[in-house]
Specification:
Blueprint (H helix, E strand, L loop, with lengths): L10 H7 L6 E4 L3 E5 L7 E7 L6 H7 L2 H17 L7 E4 L15 E5 L10
Antiparallel strand pairs: 1-2, 2-3, 3-5, 4-5
The structure holds guanosine-5'-monophosphate (5GP).
Guanosine-5'-monophosphate binds next to strand 2.
Amino acid sequence: MNSRNYDDSNIFAKIIKGDIKAEIVYENDNVICFKDISPRAPVHILIIPKNKYIDLNDFSSNSNTEEKISIFQAFSKIVKKFNLEKSGYRLISNSGKDGRQEVPHLHFHMLGGKDIGKMLSL
Ligand code: 5GP
C-alpha cells in the first residue's frame, strides 16, 4: 500500500480537516494527537501524522525527515503530558488485515495509566 491508495473519506482525515471534532491534546505542524473515542485504558491517545499515510510502512517509506522527527517529538510530549515517564505505557500501530487496522490513516495508540496487561493473549 502507498499514498496513492489513500482513502480521503476516512474518519481521521475528517478530524485533521476539522470536519469532525476530537479532543485534541497536542498538535504541531506535522502531527495531531487526540483522545480515542472508546478508550481501552485511562490514557488512550491517538497520535497521527497530518499528511496522508495509510500505515507505518507507507510512512516509513514516504515521509520526510521532518515528519519522522515530529512523530517522535509527539510521543515524548504525550508521555510528559500524561505523566507516563515512570509508570510506563504501550505504543501500538495496527497495520492492515492481520494487524486489524480499522482506520486506514496511520495512527499510534499510546495506552497507559494502568497495567496494560500482556501484549498478546494466546
Ligand atoms: P485501529 O483499530 O484502526 O488501530 O484503531 C482505530 C481507533 O480509532 C479505535 O481505537 C477507535 O476507537 C478510534 N476511533 C474511531 N473513530 C473515532 C472517532 O471518530 N474519533 C476518535 N477520537 N477516535 C475514533
